[in-house]
Task: structure prediction
Amino acid sequence: MKTRWSTIAGALCVALAASATACGTGDPDTFDVSNESTFDDEAASSAEAAELGTLEQGAMSCTNPDGTNSAMAAFAVAVAQELKRWQANRDFVVFGTSGQSEGSPGPQQAIKLASGSDASGPKGKSRCSDGRCAQIQAILDMQYEQANNKVFFQGSGSTRTLLNPGALRSRMVAKLREQQTCDANPRDNDGSACPREEHVLTFQSAAKGSCDTNFFFKATKPGGTPLAFPNQLKNKLKFADVTNPYIAFQSLGNGVVSVDPTFGLNEDGSTTTGNCLAACTKVTRSSVAGQCCSCGGVNKRFSKAPWNASTFLCL
Result:
């Protein structure tokens, strides 16, 4: 597997891998990132650490039986891309739903974006330039029965995994509760605790990873200075389940940390089979309706999902 990295400048970077395509199988598909370049001398040590991290992850089992591992990791990436932080306790709330859609009230529980402001400033969808956080919302909408038997994730070769919306809904609620418990007792310089220090995430690059696709983010304090406790960012990912193999968070040194989700669920980069995009489900702000796609080894065409304008299904 050949991996090329975009330049990552200074401070802390977070890598999130987003797709179940290459789970230690030597998948022949390629993953390309626009504006690629090699690390400069200052980032060389980080590149070596990242390569070591990839080798260590290679022995990991990238299990994804109901699709929720892929979805949760992609959710963490989308949150970093659009909200520029992992502060799920502030940016999301648990609410009552019928389980059919976000707009249908009922006795079941799901999570949704918060809005407005708190002492730290805008939160939830109020932090997004489009006012709705299109990428995040696309994944949140997969919690509901409207997506039942419709959302597949590409596996290795001809395999594909069907997402279970009910399982995703239940897991998102449970993991947000865990994040709330961790955030209620923050302690800096304690590897088992959530940190007190604030952080900002800035997307840097994406590259093919062990379970799927690594997304890298530069993480600093809000003023741009380095984080004092970068390793503790792992505990800000409890909302996505830090035991999830597609998270695979690592602090790689020189301010670089990594996570691992399923291709197609996050923007940036491309994986192809011939002239077709190798993704059963694609989340993107730009329409790919009618474009060739490959799902489970079969070439088809993308169609827009009826429940979300940013979600496209390979049908």
Notes: The chain has one domain: 12-314. Residues 12-314 form one domain. Confidence is low (pLDDT under 50) at residues 1-14, 17-59. The helical segments are 44-57, 68-83, 88-91, 134-140, 165-183.
